[in-house]
């Protein structure tokens, strides 16, 4: 499974001024935004196909040599600002979480077995196959964005500022993001495995192996 990480950046901004009933209403409304990572694609040509077969054993059909591999490290990062108002002498605060969700794959690396040097017919076939996996990762991230944004907005971006004891908003928010929403987004990202499996069929493996006048098949015998 790709590794998942959480980075939580919190800023509490205090609004100074006299305590009036309208101060909390002057805070910006709670908001959620999403930002997809756009990391450059890396290449790795260092490993032979036997090593790649071990690395990708759980992905390809049993008993088939893995000639190329695409690996992405899943990242989920919450960037938070919390504008807040605390009336002088009060133990209560009103706060308005501003949540930016950064998610995607970083790094994303394509591996092509070193037995097939760049510029060869075999390299081209394997690399183009792996680019289908890259596109599937990218398309999946785009496809889940709307649902994630709607789900998080329904939770965090409705109603007015949060009210409670001073300092409670930050602790409540961090706990909820850690224990509820990080696992949720991670599950949504991991669903890409279903689409990836549709690419790595036995028929596709056979097609690539037979390509280039048998060059690939001869080298992996």
From TrEMBL:
<feature type="signal peptide">
    <location>
        <begin position="1"/>
        <end position="21"/>
    </location>
</feature>
<keyword id="KW-0732">Signal</keyword>
<protein>
    <recommendedName>
        <fullName>DUF922 domain-containing protein</fullName>
    </recommendedName>
</protein>
């Amino acid at each position: 499974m790709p590794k998942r990480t959480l980075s939580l950046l919190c800023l509490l901004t205090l609004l100074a001024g006299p305590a009036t009933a309208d101060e909390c209403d002057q805070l910006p409304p709670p908001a959620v935004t999403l930002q997809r990572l756009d990391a450059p694609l890396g290449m790795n040509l260092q490993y032979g196909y036997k090593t790649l077969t071990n690395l990708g054993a759980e992905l390809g059909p049993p008993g088939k040599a893995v000639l190329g591999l695409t690996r992405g490290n899943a990242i989920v990062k919450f960037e938070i600002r919390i504008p807040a108002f605390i009336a002088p002498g009060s133990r209560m605060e009103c706060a308005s979480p501003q949540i930016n969700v950064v998610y995607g794959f970083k790094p994303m690396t394509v591996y092509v077995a070193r037995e097939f040097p760049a510029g060869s017919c075999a390299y081209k076939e394997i690399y183009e196959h792996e680019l289908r996996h890259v596109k599937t990762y990218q398309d999946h991230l785009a496809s889940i964005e709307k649902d994630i944004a709607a789900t998080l907005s329904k939770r965090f971006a409705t109603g007015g500022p949060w009210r409670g004891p001073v300092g409670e908003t930050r602790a409540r928010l961090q706990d909820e993001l850690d224990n509820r929403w990080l696992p949720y987004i991670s599950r949504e990202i991991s669903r890409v495995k279903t689409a990836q499996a549709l690419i790595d069929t036995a028929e596709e493996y056979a097609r690539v192996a037979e390509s280039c006048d048998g060059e690939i098949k001869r080298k992996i015998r």
